[in-house]
Input
Amino acid sequence: MTSYFPHIATGMLSAIFLAIPSFGVSAEPTKTQVAKAPQQLAIFSQTLNFNLPLDWKLAYSQQQGTMYSAEFVPASQALHTWSSMLCVQGFKGVAEDVSPQAFLETMAAVYFESCQGETVLEDLPSEPLNDHETASAIIGCTKMANSHLKSAEAISAKEVVTQGEIGHYIAVRGKQDLYLIHKSIRGEAFTKQNLPIQADNHQEFLSTITPLSLY
Output
């Protein structure tokens, strides 16, 4: 059976079917008009269109076999120390092998294996994207280890910084390929009673990268 290895927000690599894996809590602009520019990514058989804030940059991109991944972060941040991230991934030739909903559920299950706090999984209403089937969910962890953020004292004590991490995920079944778009934030640990992304504000959270289209 084929395995697919997405690069998730925490930097984890896993496989869907065999395993799969992100996004915490940062003060993002709310109810504020953010300047953004249209972007296009030709990924395997189709082109994904989205927007990106003007003060963001491409921090990572790679195509390895049947998997493509691109990660964007604010220009002032680094790939492994981000507080906000947009990740776009493509999985070639698997549109008939797994549904968008099953993909998200498998990914969340593996992601939760690294969660040291409470897990967050909230399915959201999904609408077709240019007639392509989609599934959407809020996925996160109230306390997730970030091995990239270590002080000298923490390294000597073998301690790892923990943060809250949460994001909005959209899986899209393309004509031949499967696509995953997720925007996430990371910061101080939060609680399930005070989630920074919820059903009533997820559209506002996505407003800096929408509208999306796939042709």
